[in-house]
Amino acid sequence: MSQPPVQPLVDPSVPPLVLGIESTCDETGVALVRGRELLADVTASSMDEHARYGGIVPEVASRAHLEALLPSLEAALASAEVTLADVDAIAVASGPGLVGSLTVGTAGAKALALGLGVPLYGVNHVVGHAAVDELVHGPFPERFLALVVSGGHSSLLLVRDIATDVVELGQTLDDAAGEAFDKVGRLLGLPYPGGPHVDRLAREGDPTAIPFPRGLSKGRELLRHPYDFSFSGLKTSVARYLEAREASGEPFSRADVAASFSEAVADVLVTKTLRACEEHGADTLVVGGGFSANSRLRELAAERCAQAGVELRIPPIRYCTDNGAMIAALGSAVVRAGLPSSPLDLAVDSQMSLSVPVVLPPAE
Amino acid sequence: MRILAIDTSAGTQVALVVDGVVAARAGTPEGRGHAEHTTPFVHDVLAAGGLEPRDLDLVAVGTGPAPFTGLRVGLVSAQLLGRAAGVAVAGVPSLEAWAQGWFERCADGAAGPSAAGPGEVRVATDARRREVYTARYVAGEHGPVAVDGPRVVRPADLADEVTRERAAGIAVVGPGLYPDVLGDVADVPFDVAHLAAIAWLRTQAGEPVPVEPLYLRRPDVHGVLGDALAVGAPEAAR
């Protein structure tokens, strides 16, 4: 039985060059990755424009993506010292995220793929937050847990193969961790986005001063939602605490409020994640997403992972916030896995399931 | 010359124009799904014309105005296709395709008895929120020349002008919105291929062809994420 010889498209000794495009929220990212090597990573942000509204304005973000995409692409090519003709594949975050933002990057990626005659891969933004760590700490083990925490997401993933086998174990049922920080930052009269400000204030306070609640962590709620998170009740509890002190005139420490709130968030995230590591026999934890910049989360995760014998991998902060490198990294893993490319009529999916690392063509 | 024209100001319309003749077209009037449709349509018209992207001489794209997030799809697609294929990209306001359709119909002598003023026309299109985008054009050497607008206006605030212009023989073209206020429109369809013709004339003449979206409105700040606090009296914390 003979088969016709298959000609490799590229020199197999040189991994393909993958261009990644990120535009799910307010950051426009373009990056180039060859194998697991990051060649360039350029990010433009419209956060300064949103800050004056106290939140992300979808139309402002979408307009900014259109202005930033081509300049970011040029900058990434120049930085990597490659040309578009060298690019072997395009990866784009086609979800989850804001529709207007996703639309710009995805439409641009398709046109680029058609214009260059290279395959297009619509990949998952949240899975990308885990995938980027391969560029920093090398190949993943056969099985690991990924905790992705940001202003838009708080998700716990069981990953057996970053390109083909990702299972969402849990997620937030209401606010994302970063979102809860922004809201508590506002309650404490801190500037938007509140995350870094609350974190800074928390370092001056006593994390055990106020026993704020740990959501979905006890009894029936825990049984029903072992790996889900809820931060809305916690935020309300902070608001009630502040209202009561304001009403009674009783003195209180804003730093203690910030520290106790931070402790509650970090405690729930780390406790549930390590329980999942144990249950699923994973000895590696990857933490990604913008909220992994939080200092108390980093401390507590390091401390408890060491106790549990779990290897903790957290990429540097610039790869935790939204960027093109994470998308190119996931695209590179998808190309390595030999998966078919996404169709050119690929739709953006603002609610993309986290169990879908890449959008595959419909089954024949 | 071989020109690809893309417009996503309302539906998604794509045409391949070769030596002034439409070689292939693809489109949908659907006001959504621009991001899904545009590149497959481009692929289809190029395939129908037997061309690769790099064979093009120009990519022309409608710059609006348009109220839809879809407008950006056409612009970003044209920009990146042009960049990838090494082809120049030229922007033309989408309203000018309507005006050019009218001028060409008049030149063909097919505009009918109301065509007393074939050299001038008003365009009115859907801006949503009970408003229209409008501009008045005269025929120029390199396509329509705006003598009013483009601007966004409530139909009622345009009614008197339209009445005066009609009396002077200036027709209204567009999708025919608000007929009770703006009257009937001349029967000229939107044709994306006109953008190709205008873009070619302008680039040949060295006129500016900015690939910039015409929004005509400030960004809508509704729907700010995290804007609604689900707890009472946040002032209490200050």
UniProtKB/TrEMBL annotation, chain B:
Supply the InterPro entries for this chain.
ATPase_NBD, Gcp-like_dom, T6A_TsaB
A Pfam short name = TsaD
Q: Which residue numbers delimit the Gcp-like domain?
A: 32-158
* Highest rank taxon of the organism: Bacteria
A GO BP entry: tRNA threonylcarbamoyladenosine modification
Q: Which UniProt keywords apply?
A: Transferase
Gene Ontology MF: a single term: transferase activity
Alphabetized Gene3D superfamilies for the sequence: 3.30.420.40
Its recorded name reads tRNA (Adenosine(37)-N6)-threonylcarbamoyltransferase complex dimerization subunit type 1 TsaB
What gene name is given for the protein in this entry? Answer: tsaB
